[in-house]
Each structure stands twice: as structure tokens, then as C-alpha cells.
Amino acid sequence: MTGFAGKRVLVAGGSKGIGRSIAIGFAKAGAAVSVCARGAAALEATRAEIAALGVTAHAASADLGVLAEVTGWVEEAAAALGGIDVLVNNASGFGSRDTEEDWAKGLNVDVMATVRASRAATPFLKQSRGSIVNVTSISGFRPSLRTPAYAAVKALLVNYTQSQAAAFAPDGVRVNAVAPGSIEFPGGSWEQRRTSDPDLYNRILGSIPFGRLGTPEEVAEVALFLASDAARWVTGQTIIVDGGQMLG
Predict the structure, then answer these.
(1) Could you list the residue ranges forming a coiled coil in this record (predicted)?
(2) What is the pLDDT along the chain (248 residues), one digit of tens a residue?
(3) What is the maximal distance between C-alpha atoms in the chain?
């Protein structure tokens, strides 16, 4: 994907996994990129990778469950990059169980971080006629006994993406989402489950027609497409990226 030279991109939850790959993908396509996350070491490593590609790189430590830190990052990033053309909402609290704690994680980070970052970025996106890409999950399309809280908040993001798209269309701002299936990468949850819960890992692996789990780069490429001019007539959509996992 090319055509992002001169564009300004913010990736929330951009230091590891899918978020990192999205940030690196935009940088490779020529965009200036800002990332935020809580872990300082991974955040700095990603910022350095972006800078090494010859584009403006900005990073800020932020707890995306805290309103002031979300809005502070967006405003700081907009100042550092000179505006905002694309906002990617990728943060997750990974609250999965049917407990008060996990529901709070999902609602406060997966949902409200998306709401808060979008609100803070709205004036800049309207000025640039930019776009938002939300990262949800195939879990949001079906019931889950194993991860009910996670599935519910991801379903909420699918609906909220449509509401955002309808609200922002008169201002020329597009909003779409990408819904990954099971994605494996070093240090990620599925790599850990390969050894900690091989029965679950193999059951999921067996549900994917292509016979493997996905990679963060495969999700990133769809996110870049949705933010690009090639998708200029696409808004309010959630694109599933799962190698056919939902077909099983």
C-alpha cells in the first residue's frame, strides 16, 4: 500500500501486535505516525522502528482507560505531526470473563478509549476530511461462552462504527472497522496458548480453512486499505480478516 506520503496517522495501542504492524505499515507507506500505549520499552522500540523508515515518529505513554491521558495524547500527537488524517483505535483491555472486573476493562478501554480518542480527533479529522479505522474482532459477530465480555464489547464497536460513519459523513470523514480472527505473533496470547492450552490452540487452528493463524501484517494491510483513497467510497463497514475462521 502506498499513497500516504504527507499524511498524519495516530495509532492507539500501537506498540505491539496488530497495532504495531498497523503503525509500521503506515510508516512504510510514507505517513508520519504517532503511537501510544502504556509499556514504555515496547513503545520506544516501535517509535524507533518508525523513525528508521525516514518519517516523523511520535510516541507517548498513555493509559487509554483514562480520559485525560487519551485526549492529552491526541492533542500532543496532532501538534507533533501537524494535524491528523487517520485515527486507528486499536486499544483493548482484554477483559474476557463474565466478571465485574473484566466488563469494566472492556467497556473502559475497548469502548470508551475509542469514543474518547475519536472525539478528541474529530476537529482535526474534519479539517483534513480524514478517516477512522476501529479494530474490533470476529468475536463480536457470535456468542461466546469462553469470552462473553470481550465478545460483547467488540460487537458494540461494530455498531458504533456504523453510528460514527453516519454522523461524520456530512463532513467527509469516513469510519470503518477491521475484525481480525485469531492472530499469532511473538509474545502474543495465541503464541502463549500454543503451549499453555494446546487443546484450545489446536481447536482454533482446526477451525481455520487455511490451516494456520493469521499475522498482524495481514490485518494491517486491510486497515491501510480502509484508510486509503482506494476505499474512498467505503464507510460504515467492518471487514473480517480471519482466513475463513468464521465459516466453520
Answers:
(1) none
(2) 668 999 999 999 999 999 999 999 999 999 999 999 999 999 999 999 999 999 999 999 999 999 999 999 999 999 999 999 999 999 999 888 899 999 999 999 999 999 999 999 999 999 999 999 999 999 999 999 999 999 999 999 999 999 999 999 999 999 999 999 999 988 888 888 888 889 999 999 999 999 999 999 999 999 999 999 999 999 999 999 999 999 97
(3) 50
Domain total of the chain: 1
The CATH number that applies at residue 27 is 3.40.50.720
- Residue 32, H or E segment: strand 32-37
Task: Evaluate whether residue 72 is within a structural domain.
Answer: yes
- Please tell me the pTM assigned to this model: 0.95
Domain-embedded: residue 49: yes
Cell of 108: 473502559
Q: Identify the three-state secondary structure at position 160.
A: helix
- 4, 150, 160, 168: which is the annotated catalytic residue? 150
Based on its alpha-carbon atoms, the radius of gyration of the chain, rounded to whole angstroms, reads 17
Domain assignment of residue 194, given as a range: 8-240
201 is catalytic: no
DSSP bridge pairs for 10: 34, 87
Cα–Cα distance between 164 and 125 in angstroms, integer? 12
Residue type, 132: I
Residue 1 in domain: no
